[in-house]
Structure formats: C-alpha cells, structure tokens
Sequence to fold (572 residues):
Amino acid sequence: MSILIIADVKNRTINPSTLEMLSAAKKIAKNNTMPIYILIPFGNIGGDSYCSSEFKTFILDLNIEQYSAHVLVKYISSVIREVNASYIIGMHTPFSIDYIPALSVSINAQCITQIHSLDVAERITVTRGSHAGKLDHHIVINDTPIILTVLPGSFEPYTITDVQTQHITTIHIPEVNKHIYCNFITKDMKDTSLDEADVIVGAGKGIGSRENLSLIYEFAKVFPHSAVAGSRIVCDYGWLPYSKQIGITGKSIAPKVYIACAISGSSQHVAGIKGAKTIIAINKDPCAPIFNVSHYAVVADIFEFIPQFIDFVQNNA
Amino acid sequence: MENKFRILVCVKQVPDANALVYLNDGIPEYDEKTVYVINRYDEYALEEALQLKDCGLTSYIHAVSVGPHRVQKALRRSLEMGVDEAFCIQSDDDRLHNPYVIAQAITQFAQQNYDIIFTGVMSEDAMNQQTGQLIAAMLGYKHATGVTELSLNNTTITITRELDAQESQMYELPIPCVISVQSSIHKPRYPSLSNVLRARKQEIAIIKHDLITSTGKTKSYFTMPQKTTQCQFIEGSISQKVTELYTILHKNAVL
Ligand SMILES: Cc1cc2nc3c(=O)[nH]c(=O)nc-3n(C[C@H](O)[C@H](O)[C@H](O)COP(=O)(O)OP(=O)(O)OC[C@H]3O[C@@H](n4cnc5c(N)ncnc54)[C@H](O)[C@@H]3O)c2cc1C
Fold:
C-alpha cells in the first residue's frame, strides 16, 4: 500500500500546484505508515527539486516534447504496480486530465475526477462539484486502488524542506517510444490589462448578447484602474476574445476586487479567481454557486442593478 | 485525399441550464417539467464531425447516446443537425452512472466500426471528464482531449488541444482515435429545414442494455455545496443594495 502522486505540467515546467497534491496525500497517509511517491512524467521540466528523504521520486526518461498519453499510461501503470499504489493522485488540469483517467483501464481501478476536498475518518470520503457547481458529490472509498484528480487550489501547498536528490530514480524508456511528437504553441500575451487592473469586472453568459457588453464596460469605467473579462462561454460566443477569459483554461487573476456579473461560478471559472482579494458576485439566482466563493453577494438582475449603480456613483463622485 | 472516414459522435442528454435540481435522499432529481437538451460540449463534438462531412471527408456519421427512452430526443436533434444515423443504447436506469460503465457500453457498441470517435470534453451534469479517455483505453486507440482545432490527413489527424489562455499542444494522432472536443469559436449549427424534415422520417435504432452499476466499490451521495467563504448577502431594495455596495467598494479603496 502506498500513495503515488503524478506531477502536473504548466508552461512546459512542473506546475507548483503539484505541492497541493502532497498535502492531500499527507492527509490520506495520516495515522498510517503509507509511503508517498512522486512521479515526474518528464525529465526536462525542472522536477529535480521535488524529492526529499520523506518520499521517493521517479522521473520518466522522456522529454515534454515527447508527450503522448499512450506512452505515459503504459509506463506510469508499471510504476503503480511496482510501488503497489493504493491511491494514485493527479491534478485536475487540462494537461493531466488528458491521460490520468486512462490509467483506470490499465490498472483496473476507478477514477474520481475534480476533487476539491477529502475527509479522512474510518473510510476516506472525497468530494467533487457536480451539476455546474450546484451540488457536491461525495464518494466513500471502499476499495483500492483508486485514482483521484484534485482541482488546483483546493489544498494548501506542502513545503519540501530537505531536497535530497539521491532519492530520485530515473525510469528508462526504450527509444521506440520516444518520438518528438508534440508541438507546444505559446500565444503572445501582449494584453496585460488583466494583470494590471485593481478591479476586474467579469461578464457571464447572463449578459445575453454582445451588445449588452457595453453595460459591463460602462460599469468598469466607474473604477479608476479596471478591466473587463469574461467566462469561457462569453469567449466561445465571440463576445470577448479568449485573451479575456478567466479560469482553468484561461487566465488566473489577482486584482483587489473581482466583480462577477451574471456568472454562475463553475469550478473551472472559479479556479482562475482564487487570487482576487475580494470577490463580489451579482447574480439573479440566489442559489448561484458563485456565491459560495464570494465575499459579497448581490442578488439582482444586472440590467436593473448596474445602471442604478453607475448613476449613483456619477451623482456622488 | 482518397480516404473517407467512419465517424461516431457520443451524445449525452442533460437537463437544460434552467432545470431545478433537488435532492431526494442524497440523489439528484428533476421534476417532470424539466427540459432535456444535448450536452453543450457534445454539440461542439457534433459540429466538428459535421464540418468534416461538409468537406466530403466522411463516409458516415453516427450518433450514439446511452440512457433512458427520453435520450432519443437528443438523437433526433443530432439527426436534424446532419448526422446520418442514430443509435440509442437504452437503459431504463435513469440515475447518473459511473463513466466507466458508460464507456464500456459505448465501447461494446463501437467495436471496430469507426475511424474517429468524438465525445464532448465533459458532461454538464456529472462533470467527470473521463468518458473519451476511457473509451480510447478500452478500444486500445489513441486519443486527445480538450480539442479545439483538427484537420484530417490520409491516415492521421492533426489536433490542437488547449491548455490555458497562453498555451496549446499540437500533434498528430493515428486513426483510429478518440477525440474529446472542447467548446470553441466553432458555433454548433442550427438544423436546416431540409434536415429537420429528413430526420423526422428516420428511425432511431434501439439497443437494449443493462448498465451494470458498480456496487460495493464505492458508495456515493450528493449534498448542497459547502460555502468556502463567509459570504455577506447585501439585503434590501435595489437602491439600498447600490448604496451598500458603493460603501463596500469605497472601503476597499477602489472607488
Ligand atoms: C475542460 C473545461 C474547461 C473550462 N474552462 C473554463 C474557464 O477557464 N473559464 C470559464 O469561465 N469556464 C470554463 N469552462 C466552462 C464552465 O464549465 C462553464 O460552462 C462556464 O464557466 C459558465 O459560464 P457562465 O457562468 O458565464 O454561464 P452560466 O453557467 O450559463 O451562468 C449564467 C449565470 O447568469 C445568471 N444570470 C442570467 N441572467 C442574469 C441577469 N439578467 N442578471 C443577473 N444574473 C443573471 C444566471 O443565474 C447564471 O448563474 C470550462 C469547461 C470545461 C469542460
């Protein structure tokens, strides 16, 4: 019995959120002598510091450009068997979700995705959001091995204190499996408005049309250093460019204030707003999941509330 | 290009965005008035497949859905959008199933008949994001998820999969393969009148199937979500809410 953590990748280097999985693993291992292993799927992503006397680290002898879900599944499955892992933990990001569920078939274990918390009692219960965040789904784990993917930002990052590289084992991959296979395309992010703004006003699908964005722009103008952003749907509809999308497949923001307007608050959106100091949500649905992560809630129709707010500021400035 | 491809699109039917979900003994339920629609991401999967058909690259496109009788409406809509034939893997058990069980049912159906299998990247209700990867693993095919662009070559397909605002991956997959489509700028089409008329006459093939619900392994239940912040609801009339929010923003030194 052991725990295997599969490191995540962001911008072709190891994603520091990998340390959050270590905290989740420590929680599972509590009162238990279960050893923890870390698997770094590529040799050239700067994973060498993710090792210590506390746990053993495996690095696959592959380059990130040799990414192939198929090859990873094959070699990670054999590591899982070798260390007799009961809990296999990956990150719920677009990078890792591509291959981690496929391990399920090769090791014959269930995969539970998008976990945001876990409770360790006699049995372990994991909790994930479902139904666009309107419900929490709790799963009591009765049988292992089990594969879990954890949502970024759900656990405190663990601090590795004594980096000791002698605890690293490199896993040889035969040349036949090492094709330069994958191109990474990096977009030029000239648009830094979301990084610099004090206040970001987010537009959701509830704005209804591209024309109604003008209301959001007027609202943002009320604040001295502000910017307008949106949910993915708003960008899919072409109302805003993808460079303005906030969330797990968009940008992460950290303004003083984020005001979510007619945004429901899906976990994918929320993953990008955790850095905001204050979150305010305006939504006509009193049960909108965005309120679960907000500091202030305004239950109102944006078409009523925002014009009145703009008037008020103009008359009081 | 000489090759024409045999395509399957996996379509899930989900309650629409306005549906009110309530809990009955820890199980999500909906009332009879609930309107069911095609899962948003599966509409994008249908669109990608239909664009290949528009370019004359397909020999046929099939749609398959697993679920109770009502899912035929989603299949009818797929036919209206332009799919050639539709198959319902019918199970009367209307609960949410483990994605493994669904993937097994689809894999059994899809054995060897398809060059490309499309799924949406996620279903809006269960939000598992696994079905495509599982089908691929079960069939021994290669796969890619989060795909926003694709182009066909003779025996391979070049895909772009999105990682975040800044980065995506681009690579070739050998055919046969499974592709999980992410929502994108490629807006799913509205059915044309001629397709609606054609679809009306088409039969949906029904395959009876008992979904084996995984028992023993895991027990699961649903609750309302827990709040992660202490959220203060601003009360009162609209104008009171306006004043109050102004005061809060002023205190936060942004106004
Ligand atoms: C792999 C993957 C990655 C994703 N990545 C992202 C991401 O990075 N960012 C992202 O945002 N999404 C992402 N999504 C999509 C996400 O799951 C949601 O679909 C999306 O965030 C919902 O956008 P929304 O809140 O604008 O729309 P909806 O969920 O439709 O919500 C609209 C809200 O507006 C409210 N509303 C409607 N009218 C009004 C009104 N007049 N006044 C006030 N309120 C009103 C409604 O009550 C509702 O709460 C991703 C999905 C997947 C599968």
